[in-house]
Amino acid sequence: MKKQMRDLFSKGAFRVNGSLWIEGDGTRFFGPGPVELLLLIEETGSINQAAKKMGMSYKKAWEIVSRLNEIVGSPMVITATGGEKGGGSTISEEARQLIEYYQSLRERFRKFMEQESQKLQ
């Protein structure tokens, strides 16, 4: 980094920060919130229970799931109605793969921000 740039950052603790989303058709659709929702659906077996744990309405959770399914083009959440246990939901193998990819991408992004932040010291 040039000396002038270093001088700009000499009077404080600066760091590079950012958020990471995957976009489809120009729309942010996969990031921290949808990942958490999918993981909670897997954990609880219920879109409604996952939504409650996140402090969001069932309607909002269902909108996120619908948008994921629409943009990705295959079901991210598989729902079952009725039955002995009253139905439930689980995530698809494609959802698991997308979560794994996102988590790996997020780790690489974290390392990039860390490296760039060190340049500001």
UniProtKB/TrEMBL annotation:
Pfam families xref list: HTH_1
Domain HTH lysR-type: 36-82
GO MF term (any one): DNA-binding transcription factor activity
PANTHER family documented for this protein: DNA-BINDING TRANSCRIPTIONAL DUAL REGULATOR MODE (PTHR30432:SF1), TRANSCRIPTIONAL REGULATOR MODE (PTHR30432)
Protein name: ModE family transcriptional regulator
Species whose genome carries this gene: Niastella vici
